[in-house]
Automatic annotation (TrEMBL):
Classification via SUPFAM superfamilies: E set domains
Keyword Ligase belongs to the record: no
Highest rank taxon of the organism: Bacteria
Protein name: CopC domain-containing protein
InterPro entries: CopC/D, CopC_dom, Cu-Rt/internalin_Ig-like, Ig_E-set
PANTHER family named in the record: INNER MEMBRANE PROTEIN YEBZ (PTHR34820:SF4)
Length: 186
């Protein structure tokens, strides 16, 4: 009987220690953003990595602290990775990311993580775009003004050059006429 009990205990221990991951539930391994983290830059995508392969039927949802659901696009499963694109900039505040997956063991798993968004407020894009347009218009006006001044300078330089040329020609003509008249008188 002792041999049978010992053999049974040994088989039980071997079974427990040799259990494959297929017998374990699939849990979250890593995430971006991490649970409890504070995001300080614009979040373009969310990525969850699980301990084992998950099925394509995974569901991923993002909610603000007030319960408002945020739309996620391109939710994809690639082996043990669940990812999605964040299409709209997230406002500062607390968020909950929930998922519902089926692991390699066939058991459905639901869980969630929380993170905060705290992005330093900067000039809005509309203001930035408007400012860019104003800056471009000012640059164009400055260029036009500089070109006009240059044209005026060129024109005045051309006028000065032309005046000098005309003066030289007139002096030359007067000199020729004077020489011809002086020769005739001799």
């Amino acid at each position: 009987m002792k041999k049978l009990t010992g053999a049974l205990a040994l088989v039980t221990l071997l079974f427990i220690f040799s259990a494959s991951p297929a017998f374990a539930h699939t849990h979250l391994d890593t995430s971006d953003p991490e649970d409890g983290s504070t995001v300080t830059e614009a979040l373009d995508s969310i990525t969850l990595n699980f301990e084992t392969v998950i099925e394509e039927s995974a569901v991923l949802e993002l909610q603000k602290e007030d319960g408002t659901e945020i739309t996620l696009d391109n939710i994809t499963v690639n082996d043990d990775e669940l990812s999605a694109d964040v299409t709209e900039p997230l406002e500062n505040g607390a968020y909950t990311l929930s998922w519902d997956i089926i692991g390699v063991d066939g058991h459905p798993m639901e869980d969630s993580l929380s993170f905060d968004v705290d992005i330093e407020e900067t000039v809005s894009e509309e203001t930035t775009e408007g400012q860019k347009d104003e800056d471009a218009a000012e640059d164009q006006a400055d260029e036009n003004e500089a070109a006009s001044e240059s044209d005026v300078q060129d024109t005045s330089e051309d006028s000065n050059s032309n005046t000098l040329l005309i003066t030289i020609l007139l002096v030359a003509i007067i000199a020729v006429v004077a020489i011809v008249l002086l020769k005739r008188k001799k």
